[in-house]
Amino acid sequence: MPDRVTELLGPMCKHILDAMPSGVFISDVSGRTLYVNRTYEQLTGLRQEELRGKNVRSLVGEGIFDNILNPEIVRTCRPATHVQQLKNGTRLVLSGFPVFDEDGIIRLVATFARDITLLTDLQDQVAAQRNLIDQISGQLTHVARESPHQLPIYASAAMGEVVSLLRRFAATDATVLILGETGVGKDVFGRYLHGISARKDKVMLKVDCGGISETLTESELFGYLPGAFTGASAKGRAGYFEIADGGTIFLDEIGELPLPIQTRLLRVLQDNEIVRVGSSAPRRVNVRVIAATNRDLARCVEEGTFRRDLFYRLNVATLRIPPLRERPEDVRPLAEHFLRQYTAKYRKTLAFMNITLDLLADYAWPGNVRELQNLVHSLVITRNGPLIGPGDLPEEISGREKTDVALTVPGEGRPLKDIVADMEREFLRKAIEVHGSVQKVAALFQVNRSTIFRKLQEGRDRKAGAGGDGGAEPAPASGPQPGPQSGQQR
């Protein structure tokens, strides 16, 4: 029977090998190629006639492929597996097996090959996507922490005009240049502009142009190819413009950009193209640019530190944010907005006295809105409440270091008892607003309810006697009374 099987299979062996879905490469112990099946020819593009009789070592030397199993299997007499890359870029996974004769001596090496090019490409794509996701997560963490866009807080007519102009800009896709001193809130207006634009559902990426190392600015903004420079990722990396494709990129402090990078940025604005570091092939991007700076760019152009053509390209839709000292009407609503924000964060109950808000409005605020925000944050942390009075403010704001009492206490020329009575009335009114009822305030400060009503009424009568009600409020009943309103959202 065995002879009958051999007799039957022998002539069919080649056809059986050709029917196999894997490539078959058979060589002898010296490495000489004996046979490859049809599938191997299809996988590699190499023909039986080209390979037969050639030694596998010479095939490696000719660059046909880069890895062979025959010598290892002959030496160890054990199966082996490796990945092989052909000259045409095809990648195969090789599984080789020793073939022994009846005496246990190795005679042949049978290698089976499977194409993993597609699988490897998919793995590379997944790895690239994972790398991009990790990069975006790191670069956009601040976006996730920021609250959704909201209308900037203001009460002044000057800021009303700014917001009106900003809304007109948002309806277009034009590049916008926001000018203003440090701390005026340029990024707030940039986020609001993006949030009401047609790109609001896409990402807005904020880039601090002054916070990136000059040597890395180009690669951070425009990306780079693998191995473009020492320390570069082996897979390359997308830059900020590619990450923000379809959305908005906010270039804060654009006046800090080095001149060579200004040239690259001009190409983005003119042609909507970027070129990665180490590449010569342009990539199309669809990004709206909002730029901001506290510098006088026109002067920078004259001094030669900013490109004239880039300035003209940016100076199309320009928005100037006035400093806080030019709009004191905005101090009260901003202060109360920040107070609500931080009291909610720290679960505290605090309110400003009117005299405190008056002092804040009279201050010049060299640090603008950021300085005001930091001050309110500090007050909420350090004060236990319920009211924030003039004595809680820094000396440069309250004026305590001045010897002229009339300069630090409102009501110059009025009797001291009237000033004290007004301050007492203001304190009680705020306390009622904070605690919700006259009864709670009376218990907290150990006074009769009737005393509170009397002091509040005396203040109203005094103002009425001075001519008109002077904006006095009716005495509270049992519930909390409305406090001072923040700026209207126009």
Q: What composes the largest sheet?
A: 5 strands, antiparallel
Lateral arrangement of strands in the main beta sheet: 2-1-5-4-3
Distance between the ends: 100 Å
Low-confidence stretches: 141-147, 402-409, 468-490
Number of helices: 23
| Residue share in helix | 40-55%
Tell me, rounded to a whole number, the average pLDDT: 82
Shape: elongated
Extended strand count: 14
Structural class: alpha/beta
Our Rg estimate from Cα atoms comes to 39 Å
The proportion of residues in beta strands is 5-15%
How would you describe the overall organization of this protein?
- This protein is 45% helix and 14% strand.
- It has 23 helices and 14 strands.
- A hairpin with an 8-residue loop joins strand 9 and strand 10.
- The C terminus is likely disordered.
Task: Annotate the secondary structure layout.
Elements (H helix, E strand, L loop, with lengths): L1 H8 L3 H6 L4 E6 L4 E4 L1 H7 L3 H4 L4 H6 L8 H7 L3 E6 L5 E10 L5 E10 L1 H23 L1 H5 L11 H14 L5 E4 L6 H10 L8 E5 L8 H6 L17 H4 L4 E5 L6 H13 L1 E2 L8 E2 L3 E6 L3 H7 L4 H7 L2 E4 L10 H16 L4 E2 L1 H9 L5 H15 L4 E2 L6 H4 L6 H4 L7 H20 L2 H8 L3 H17 L25
Parallel strand pairs: 6-11, 6-12, 7-8, 8-11, 13-14
Antiparallel strand pairs: 1-2, 1-5, 3-4, 4-5, 9-10
Helix pairs in contact: 16-18, 21-23
Short description:
Helices cover 45% and strands 14% of the residues. The protein has 490 residues and is an alpha/beta fold.
List the main descriptive attributes of the protein structure presented here.
490 residues; five-stranded parallel β-sheet; 23 helices; elongated
